[in-house]
Amino acid sequence: MKENFVYNPFSGVLHEDLEQVVIPRIDIPLIENKIANAHSLAIEFIGKQGRGKTTHLRYLQKRMPQYPIFNLQGKFAVSKIMNHPSDTVFIDSIHHLSLLDRITLFKHKKTVIYTTHWSRKLECIFSKKKHYAINFKGIDTSLLQQILNKRLALASNSQVSEDDLFSEKQVTLLIKKFGDDYRGIINHLYEQY
Amino acid sequence: MSTDVLSNSIIIHSDPNTNTYTGVLRIQSEENLTIDTIIGNVILEARGRMSSYRNNLLPFIITKKQTIQKNQVYEFPFSFELDYVIDSYKGKNVSFQYKCEAEIHVNEDDLKKLDRSFFTKIGAFLTSDNSIKIASYFDKRNENKQYKITQQSEKLKLKPSLITIVLSVLFIGLTYLSIIKLAEVPYHFSHIFLVLFTIIGVNMILHKSKAKKIGGLFVDIIPNEHGFTSKINTRKPLGLTNPKLHYRVIEKVVDDRGTSTSTYNEQIFKSPVHRLSKTRSQSIDFEFPSIKNVHTLTHGDVSFYWELVLEGEASGISETLICKFEVQQH
Fold it and tell me: Which of A104, B9, B147, B289 has the greatest number of CB atoms lying within 10 Å of its CB?
């Protein structure tokens, strides 16, 4: 690891540090408003792996801690979610639930905000739930530059010099190599640092 | 009013032979302040190619009800005992670090004297509950800790051979194509499943047949003065040519950030390789590695595991048998 950092700046971000690192690329106030006023709604964060869906889900849930977040891995009993008293739930990786469980969830919870690789619109229609999708694709050079430099600053044990920061040219090269695969970029930089 | 009212630092000293840590919190203020309490906390941070997390391990009181006169330096010593299973560690895909945090609760009557928009150079920051937090990372390790093994008996299990799988896929694939051509049977989508099941079935049979030929192998792992002895027990002579034995330590990190999961296995130690004879029972001595703090452990998405690896050839193909074993550190 490079010497002027307390930890690798491209390691996983602590829950406590999310606001210091994340620059949302979605309209957070709009989504918060939809969640607050929804009668029956599914908000879908959809996109390929490594595009920032989970990070944005966690960021949003941190701003609304009164609603629980469930990080699904492998087989997961939907009863754990159904038995939670909250009518609004955040679900990471909803594909770990079976089709039947997803429909049950959509029918019984007022608002479900979830991440997925594939659209669940049909299941929402079947469950008579309004569906609002946010597509995570594409990447903004300036935004990525800011995010990477924020990570450097947070992990640094002293003031980060101009030379240490990512330039626009460096970021452009990263995007040329990895496209909009943000996770791929972070994993690559983890190796460098 | 100055924008840098309160400056502070924490210094931690550790005794490498014990679990006792001493520290000093230094404070200097540009205003007279009343401090209600200063609370210390020891935190474990696990960061890496994974969902990083922190565990609050040990809260303690550093001091209560202090009046700070402006422009004077105050020192508050403290100490704590930290006997946690994990030591500081910097690996390929994960690091474990320890942090001592001091939370300074300034009396509410003096809060207006502090500039709430300013982040001090040392890294203190104002939390939403109006306390000021500062932190310092420190190294946690105890040089007196040694690896320890309790006697255990494990079975060496044959790993599926990639070469066998590839050869079987080629053989079955070519056989299928030949049959199709000779019998002039038209291709059909369902044939894929037939071929797939055949490949799986053949590989299972081959695997069982190889395991039988090599022989049931058990290993007793017995502690000795500098490490351990691996005593291989077999009912018949080893069914492998050029058998070799070594052990390795693996750092395993599961990255479940996002909607898919990846696993990173990094070999962080490999012992010297010992050649074996083909006799029924034989013992090999191994020493413990010089690297510390990688005993058998699972903590969140991180695990360290130790495994014995027996390699050799059967019917000209390289085969590998593996068993995991437990190692503690005290």
Answer: B147
Q: Look at residue B118 and tell me whether its pLDDT is greater than 90.
A: no
pLDDT digits (tens, 9 = 90+) for B70-117: 889 999 999 999 888 889 999 999 999 999 999 999 888 887 777 643
Among candidate residues A121, A118, A184, A175, the one with its CA nearest the CA of residue A145? A175
pLDDT at B2: 37
ipTM over 0.85: no
CB within 8 Å: A117 and B97: no
Instruction: List the beta bridge partners of residue B181.
Output: none
Alpha helix segments (H runs only) across B235-286: none
b/e sequence A66-104, b meaning 16+ C-beta within 10 Å: ebebbbbeeebebeebeeeeeebbbbbbbbbbeeebbbb
Q: Do A73 and B45 touch (CB under 8 A)?
A: no
pTM: 0.83
Phi-psi region of B258 (alpha: psi -120 to 50; beta: other; left: phi over 0): left
Residues from chain B that touch A55, judged by Cβ atoms under 8 A, are 257-258
Mean pLDDT of the residues in chain B: 86
Nearest chain A residue to B44, by CA: A14
Question: Under an 8 A CB cutoff, do A187 and B53 touch?
Answer: no
Cβ of residue A137 closer than 8 Å to a chain B Cβ: no
DSSP label at B260? S
Whether residue B124 is predicted with pLDDT greater than 80 in this model: the reply is no
Is the Cβ of A177 closer than 8 Å to some Cβ of chain B?
A: no
Is residue A182 within 8 A of residue A48, CB to CB? The reply is no
Are B6 and B38 within 8 A, CB to CB?
no
pLDDT at res. B116? 47
Q: What is the pLDDT of residue B96?
A: 95
Do the Cβ atoms of A93 and B259 come within 8 Å?
Answer: yes
| Three-state secondary structure call for residue A188 | helix
How far is B306 from B250, CA to CA, in rounded Å?
A: 6
Q: Taking the CB of residue B69, how many other CB atoms lie within 10 A of it?
A: 10
State how far the Cα of B309 lies from the Cα of A137, in Å rounded to an integer. 44
CB A118 within 8 A of CB A98: no
**Could you say which of B50, B53, B259 has the minimum Cβ distance to residue A115?**
B259
Nearest-angstrom CA–CA distance, A179 and A183: 10
Q: Decide if B272 contacts B248 (C-beta within 8 A).
A: no
> What CA–CA distance (Å, rounded) separates A98 from A95?
7
Contact between A7 and B49 using a beta-carbon 8 Å cutoff: no
Token pair in block for residue B325: 């074993």
Highest mean pLDDT among B43-57, B232-246, B276-290: B43-57
